[in-house]
Write a structure and sequence with these properties.
By secondary structure, the chain is mostly beta strands. Helix content is 7%, strand content 54%. Strands 1-3-4-7-8-9-10-11-12-13-14-17-18-19-20-23 form a 16-stranded antiparallel barrel.
Length: 431
């Protein structure tokens, strides 16, 4: 199925006329000078390109969560403002017809945060508490730049392309390419924390025929691109997509591993293996795009207690004496859009998730959005958007509400709920 927006990787290659070769030369030359004094130089001619992509919005958000007595309380990020949610800088270099490399940096706003930590008695030191920094930024709000993708690519033929480093998650990139509106909302497994958009490892992919069959299989660390540290064992992810007809796409995927949470320190603790199964079907015909994604994620996360039902506790590992809880989530996301012409589109989407089928089957997350898009120029999308989400019988932390990354929606306990709504203008630009 033809996507309305493509994944971030190779964004610059889509429009060679806008490649910023002078900027590329300065960046690579500076890096070379800093790391290899007296080097002969690096070819930054036609084989190197630089591009970028950003998502921004101006909107009003209202989030109301019920307290223990049932009173609805306005909660952050309620308010009106401008956000730049993502900014990607993409540098591609082609060594020859087989080997290439990619660097994609990402940026987001972060704040310093602390937590109270209990300290046990140790010899003559009594037990007590201390305040610990839980974020590396101690100076308050900052803009954080980090590596999202960094890989060496060997394109041996269409059937086998090898990438070593941080690269797209096998399922998320496939779902995004069919959904087409990533700048408005993450796909369902991504926004609920059941899939990584990129991870460090070894990735093999390929295409058979004119995209009749495509696949990706990856062996990864499991902690996502923000956590490059090694764990005790690797995780496995795979996906196969099939296009039996020009207007029909179907696909399936799987994930199995410990999400980067098992190390030498806790390898003998009781533990679960996180598994996820995915399926997708999409149709694209005469300007109409319709699709649905289904998943089941077992032992990713669970609630802290049935009474409080705060979703997000690890279901992979706990302590040496308290084993993790077995739990599973399942849900679906369905979308539809229509292209009136090359400049105007309309879209809608509905998600429904059962977050804790084993422990609190009543904990649910329902989400929908709708809107219209105008493309004044080819690389720019401007959309008027309305979003609405409800979490009932507990609470959940959702990624991507504003520039500060996440928000908690839901009630104070398992009998309460929270509701989120947003309306505004979203923009997507790539160069």
């Amino acid at each position: 199925m033809a996507s309305l927006t493509r994944p971030v990787a190779r964004a610059a290659a889509a429009n060679p006329a806008t490649r910023k070769t002078l900027i590329t030369s300065a960046i690579i030359a500076s890096c070379a000078a800093a790391s290899t004094a007296g080097a002969a130089g690096i070819d930054v001619g036609a084989n190197t390109t630089i591009g970028g992509e950003f998502f921004a919005d101006f909107s009003h958000i209202q989030l109301q969560n019920e307290n223990a007595s049932g009173q609805r309380i306005d909660t952050a990020p309620t308010g009106t403002g401008f956000d730049v949610k993502r900014f990607y800088l993409v540098v591609d270099h082609k060594f020859n017809d087989v080997w290439a490399a990619d660097l994609t940096t990402d940026a987001q706003f972060t704040t310093a945060s602390t937590a109270t930590v209990s300290t046990p008695a140790n010899g003559t030191t009594p037990a007590g508490t201390t305040t610990a920094l839980t974020n590396q930024n101690s100076s308050g709000g900052v803009n954080e730049v980090f590596i999202k993708k960094l890989y060496l690519e060997g394109a041996f033929n269409k059937l086998f392309v090898l990438r070593i480093g941080s690269y797209n998650g096998a399922w998320t990139s496939f779902a995004e390419s069919n959904y087409g509106y990533r700048y408005i909302e993450k796909t369902t497994t991504d926004r609920l924390g059941f899939a990584n958009t990129a991870d460090w490892g070894i990735h093999a992919s390929g295409v058979y025929g004119a995209n009749l069959v495509n696949y990706q299989f990856s062996v990864v660390n499991g902690g996502g691109f923000k956590n490059p540290t090694r764990s005790k064992d690797v995780d496995f992810e795979g996906r196969v997509g099939v296009n039996p007809l020009s207007w029909l796409t179907v696909g399936g995927g799987f994930y199995s591993g410990h999400l980067g949470q098992i190390t030498a320190a806790n390898e003998n603790f009781p533990k679960n293996t996180a598994t996820r199964y995915d399926a997708l079907a999409a149709v694209s015909i005469i300007g109409i795009h319709v699709g649905t994604e289904w998943y089941q994620a077992k032992n990713y996360k669970t609630v802290n207690t049935l009474a409080a039902s705060v979703f997000g506790t690890s279901a992979v590992v706990n302590t040496a004496t308290v084993g993790p809880t077995n739990d599973k989530a399942n849900g679906f996301s369905s979308w539809v859009s229509y292209e009136f012409n090359s400049q105007f589109q309309a879209f809608a989407r509905y998600d429904n998730a059962k977050l804790s089928a084993n422990i609190n089957p009543n904990l649910r997350d329902e989400y929908f959005n709708l809107g219209a898009v105008y493309k004044p120029i080819k690389p720019l999308d401007v959309a008027v958007v309305y979003k609405n989400e409800k979490v009932e019988h507990g609470s959940n932390s959702i990624s991507g509400a504003n520039a500060n990354a996440s928000y908690t929606i839901g009630g104070a306990n398992s009998s309460r709920y929270g509701r989120f709504s947003e309306y505004g203008v979203y923009a997507h630009y790539k160069f």
